[in-house]
UniProtKB/TrEMBL annotation:
<feature type="domain" description="LRAT">
    <location>
        <begin position="20"/>
        <end position="174"/>
    </location>
</feature>
<dbReference type="Pfam" id="PF04970">
    <property type="entry name" value="LRAT"/>
</dbReference>
<protein>
    <recommendedName>
        <fullName>LRAT domain-containing protein</fullName>
    </recommendedName>
</protein>
<dbReference type="InterPro" id="IPR007053">
    <property type="entry name" value="LRAT_dom"/>
</dbReference>
């Protein structure tokens, strides 16, 4: 990983990589998980999950997903026909459509604090360690079928989705705003927070789908034996 850029070539990709590409003149990045065979699973706004703020945030939200080409992609059209992306927000695209003409970057994990703080931009690396690649791919594919959660810019966005696939970690409340840097960014990194839990993907999706749990607290979905901390907001039974 370079100090100023995580840019890579397509030949360097491997299944399980968390990748991203900048949108809107470097204002915002779209994130996803490369699962091999030139496919990327990523999270975007599904139908009936549009967010209208009346501010520049609306422009960022539109920019956060891949740009639709006027020429239909046969690969992605086939994928969309076999998924429920319009309702759960998780979709599969070919790498080209995901990049939408942008450059390819790899999100880095388990970086040291000095390098983390030296990075010019947030949203490019984390102190947290990644799980094995095969686990990452399994989570992404499972969520493609079963869904994640309702799209929001400040929590449960495309970056949260990719980080969850890589680590299995969920944060109680996504309190960090876009463009927060240095000490605040360091304190808010998922690898440095105390209010995170390891949540099995099957538990996450089953509870949300059944309505037994709601996005209020997540401690009931914690891995058995995991230490709880008072700051954690958990998913609780309805």
């Amino acid at each position: 990983m370079g100090l100023l850029s995580n840019r890579i070539g397509k030949e360097s990709l491997k299944a399980g990589d968390h990748i991203y590409s900048w949108r809107a003149a470097w204002v915002y990045a779209h994130h996803g998980i490369y699962v091999g065979d030139d496919k990327v699973i990523h999270f975007t706004r599904g139908r009936d999950q549009e967010v209208g703020t009346g501010t520049v945030i609306d422009f960022l939200l539109v920019s956060s997903g891949p740009t639709r080409s006027t020429t239909p992609c046969l690969v992605c059209s086939s994928e969309e026909a076999t998924t429920t992306a319009e309702t759960n927000g998780v979709t599969s695209s070919c790498l080209s459509c995901f990049l939408a003409g942008g450059a390819l970057y790899r999100f880095e994990y388990d970086v040291n604090p000095a390098l983390f703080l030296a990075k010019v931009r947030g949203g490019t690396c984390t102190l947290a360690a990644t799980d094995p690649d095969e686990v990452v791919v399994r989570r992404a594919k499972y969520l493609l079928t079963n869904g994640f959660r309702c799209y929001s810019l400040f929590k449960n966005n495309c970056e949260d989705f990719a980080i969850y696939c890589k680590t299995g970690l969920l944060v109680a409340e996504q309190v960090m705003a876009v463009g927060v840097y240095c000490v605040s960014r360091y304190a808010g990194d998922i690898g440095n927070r105390r209010d995170v839990l390891k949540v099995e993907v099957e538990d996450l999706t089953a509870g949300l789908a059944s309505g037994r749990i709601r996005p209020a607290n997540i401690s009931q979905l914690a891995t058995p034996g995991q230490v709880q901390v008072p700051a954690v907001t958990t998913l609780v039974a309805a």
